[in-house]
Amino acid sequence: MMTTARKEKTLHDLFLISMWIKGLVGVIQAVSGALLLTVSHHALTAFVMSMTTPELSEDPHDLIATFLTRSAAHFSGGTQLFASVYLISHGAIKILLVVALLRNKLWSYPVSLWVLCAFIVYQCYRYTHTHSPWLVMLTALDVVVLFLIFHEYRVRKALSVT
Asked: Which of 52, 69, 98, 101 could cross-link to 23 by cystine, CB 3.0-4.6 Å?
């Protein structure tokens, strides 16, 4: 049976790991969004076609290759701009909050909880349109991270009072 101190250390370690992962994902999102701004629509479509054509020649019904090809064909300039701005802002928000959380800034815990709740609600809304199993997994992971942030906040708040 796990002692309370051991349980708290495990939860804190999981919190730190999840923050580093969220921070890394935030950097990847921001960089991807910036790169997406610099790539022309034509170059993006050509890249997707060059990656999917060999797979589609072997299996014309490949789900991933077909999805990527169709997505590239319907990816307009406006969609590209929206995706860029979304990725940059989403990544920047994650990076800023993760840095504040890792520095134990007490204000960042409730802000992070609200932002994460907003992302979860949006992901649930998107799921009603896409029925993507990836969104279900992402949302489940975000719920775990939400719990870890909430738990860490309670511990940090208790320590700041004493």
From this structure: 98
User: Residues 82, 100: contact at Cβ < 8 Å?
Assistant: no
**pTM of this structure:** 0.77
Q: Which DSSP state fits 162?
A: -
How many angstroms separate the CA atoms of 111 and 116, rounded?
8
Q: Give the amino acid at 42.
A: H
Taking CA atoms, 86 is separated from 26, 36, 103, 106, 107, in Å, by: 12, 11, 26, 27, 24
Contact between 12 and 76 under an 8 Å Cβ cutoff? The reply is no
Per-residue pLDDT tens over the stretch 92-128: 999 999 999 999 999 999 999 999 999 899 889 988 9
Domain ranges of the chain: 4-161
DSSP state for residue 105 in the 8-state scheme: -
